[in-house]
Amino acid sequence: MGFLARLFGKETIEPEKKETDNMVKVAVVYYSSTGTNYKMANWAKDAAEAEGAEVKLVKVPELAPMEAIESNPAWKAHYEATKDVPDAKIDDLDWADAIIWSVPTRFGNVPGQVKQFIDQAGGLWAQGKLVNKVVSAMSSAQNAHGGQEATVLALYKTMFHWGAIVAAPGYSDPVTFESGGNPYGTSATVDGEGNIQENKLDEAIANQAKRTVAVAKAVTSGM
């Protein structure tokens, strides 16, 4: 039976059944040119592991030419420093019960590198393997209103197409108010020297990661 027949109801796509236990699998998928989202992703990784999750920290592969990377000393330094971080694979999305994204904004949308990676997930989507994934997203920009919320919401639109379950932080903890107040996903404002401006951003990310793990535990236990 062809894909369109399945899509329009002549064959039901069932999410792949997985054996579940108390250990939730979390993929922390990030893209970072100069290091902010790498730092945010590591905070999320540490918090998820503290909640007992099995975590993979993986980076979206860089697509920019070396000439562009070498033109920015901070970009080149970060590129060299993170060469040993594993590249994200589409199989990581299949493996994970939950996915935490950390990506910078590019004109209110995700970077091209992230879009190209996500576009490769069509096969998993067609097989129903992305249904009921628990997802959450974070972002950063140089200005307080530089597109962080728009970037998180743009990413969530794709997740809705997957049939994923969004675990946004909301105002589930007072730290959201203290760290910039973004209920869609923790976001950073970074100055020209790479300094994060928000207070308690690490705590806000920890809260978001813990909430993501908690929702994933509930989903994998009950579905």
Molecular structure report:
The chain is an alpha/beta fold. It has ten helices and six strands; from the N terminus they run αβαβαααβααβαβαβα. Strands 1, 2, 3, 4, 5 and 6 form a six-stranded parallel beta sheet that branches. The longest helix has 22 residues, at 201-222. The model has no long low-confidence stretch (mean pLDDT 91).
What shape does the CA trace take?
globular
Oligomer: single chain
SSE topology string: HEHEHHHEHHEHEHEH
Taking pLDDT < 50 over at least 5 consecutive residues as the criterion, the unreliable ranges are none
Structural class by SSE content: alpha/beta
Helicity, as a percent range: 40-55%
Head-to-tail CA distance between termini: 26 Å
For the sheet with most strands, the description reads: 6 strands, parallel
Radius of gyration: 17 Å
Using brief descriptors, characterize the structure shown.
alpha/beta; 223 residues; 6-stranded parallel β-sheet; 10 helices; single chain; 42% helix
Layout: helices, strands, pairs:
Elements (H helix, E strand, L loop, with lengths): L2 H5 L17 E6 L5 H15 L3 E6 L6 H5 L2 H9 L8 H6 L2 E7 L7 H8 L2 H5 L7 E8 L6 H15 L2 E2 L8 H4 L8 E3 L11 H22 L1
Parallel strand pairs: 1-2, 1-3, 3-4, 4-5, 4-6
Outline:
The protein has 223 residues and is an alpha/beta fold. The protein contains ten helices and six strands; from the N terminus they run αβαβαααβααβαβαβα. Helix 8 (148-162) links the parallel strand 4 (134-141) and strand 5.
